[in-house]
Design a protein that fits this description.
The structure is a single chain. By secondary structure, this protein is α+β, with helices and mostly antiparallel strands. It has helices at about 40-55, 60-95; strands at about 1-5, 10-15, 20-25, 30-40. The protein has a four-stranded antiparallel sheet. A hairpin with a 4-residue loop joins strand 2 and strand 3 (about 20-25). The longest helix is centred in the C-terminal third of the chain and has 35 residues, at about 60-95.
């Protein structure tokens, strides 16, 4: 499963883990580079949100709060269509 978040990040999964991937431009084109690995979807989303805020360039509290709001909106829009299916699949795996 691949869940696009924005033009820079996506979350990918296999049967063992959730992976935050970042788009990288390389000679000959673009590629997705695996950056962080998690055992649960919830941890991957939480860390991605924090990472996006840290990379936002905010240098004041007001800017940081604005970045948090923007990141929350981005994640909500990206995840809403797939959230139910992902959570159900995660719960099934955890029960096994």
């Amino acid at each position: 499963m691949i869940i696009p978040i924005d033009t820079q990040f996506r979350i990918k999964s296999d049967r063992y883990q959730w992976v935050i991937q970042e788009r990288r431009t390389r000679k000959g084109g673009e590629a997705w580079e695996s950056k962080l690995f998690f055992g649960t979807f919830q941890l991957a989303v939480k860390e991605l949100g924090e990472l996006m805020v840290r990379l936002s360039g905010a240098d004041t509290l007001a800017d940081a709060l604005e970045a948090v709001e923007k990141v929350n909106t981005t994640l909500s829009q990206a995840l809403t269509p797939q959230l139910v299916a992902v959570l159900e699949a995660t719960q099934k795996r955890e029960r096994k």
